[in-house]
């Protein structure tokens, strides 16, 4: 019944083969012939083995490592509930070692223990922790406790850009980025609710401010440190420290404003098409036309005279005018409009979408002023990451949540 409920299959009765072995088949809806059990997926086979063990070894203790590893999200929740109920029915105990956010949240009320630095912490019995984590999710506590800090950004694209900027400037934080990052996404205001925005929303829990999230965790972890690097959004927001949480804003509208320029958009687009192609002249004209149309509308308020005057300025003067005109403009939207307009002119898909603009960074040469501000923020991130050494135990890579 459990296998039917979970995987929509019917197990056949085991049969002894002529060689003394055991054959086990199953039937699946829409498949005419019975299938050998070896044809089943890893997740189904693992759960069949665990269920069989629990029923054949009543009153036992079973430790299962990552039973969710081969299961989709819905199945993960169902498996936890079934294992809990079967163990209770048979007087057994199941200890689940998992990193699944679904199982961690499901087990939080009664059955969640955190193992970290050789210590067992029964989170289910700590009412203050349990109540806080119901709002944020158990994984947020686990990550914060493991690292000792949280870094707040608008969304996943900001993490990609900061990492690319660190690599472009050869900043030392780039070498430890992947192993140290512990981020939380705070953006809750998208001009368009597209698929990328929705994916970021479910990854990071949008709608919670850095202060609310950080203070909720710091009540549980007094030594927690926090750093927020957020968009200015053209509102002249000022940096500030709120206790152990440092809040820093980009001086310009957003991170994209430090590297997106007409020259960069043009160069990247030209690099995507063969220079000696039969249609190279047509491609070049389409790039120039798309760039002119978007810049006139989005940057120069539709003024042909202002746009034409800017185009003939010397390079240094043109850059100064560009920075002044775009300081309070969302250049990620300008870039996206350009790539969309170019795709319409040439046919095919967009070269880059909003979440992929960090791919432009390897081609850019940041001006001196931008380099100084970007380095200052990367220095803050490095200081935050270095605190991870105080929370790492040699030979232990990750904390484990045990649900039993």
Arithmetic mean of pLDDT: 84
The CATH architecture of one domain can be given as 3-Layer(aba) Sandwich
* Strand order across the largest sheet: 6-7-15-8-9
Number of strands: 15
> Shape, please?
flat
Radius of gyration, in Å, reads 27 Å
| Biggest sheet descriptor | 5 strands, mixed
Low-confidence spans = 188-206, 392-401
> DSSP strand (E) fraction?
5-15%
How large is the count of helical segments?
Answer: 16
Describe the structure.
This protein is of the alpha/beta class and 404 residues long. Among the domains are: 147-255 and 370-390, Rossmann fold (3-Layer(aba) Sandwich), CATH 3.40.50; 260-365, no CATH class. 46% of the residues lie in helices and 15% in strands. The protein is built from 16 helices and 15 strands. It has helices at residues 2-7, 42-56, 73-89, 101-107, 127-136, 138-147, 156-168, 177-180, 195-204, 210-218, 262-271, 280-298, 304-311, 315-326, 331-346, 368-386; strands spanning 9-11, 15-16, 22-23, 25-28, 35-36, 61-65, 93-98, 112-116, 119-122, 149-153, 183-185, 225-230, 240-242, 245-249, 400-403. The longest helix is centred in the C-terminal third of the chain and has 19 residues, at 280-298. 28% of the residues are buried.
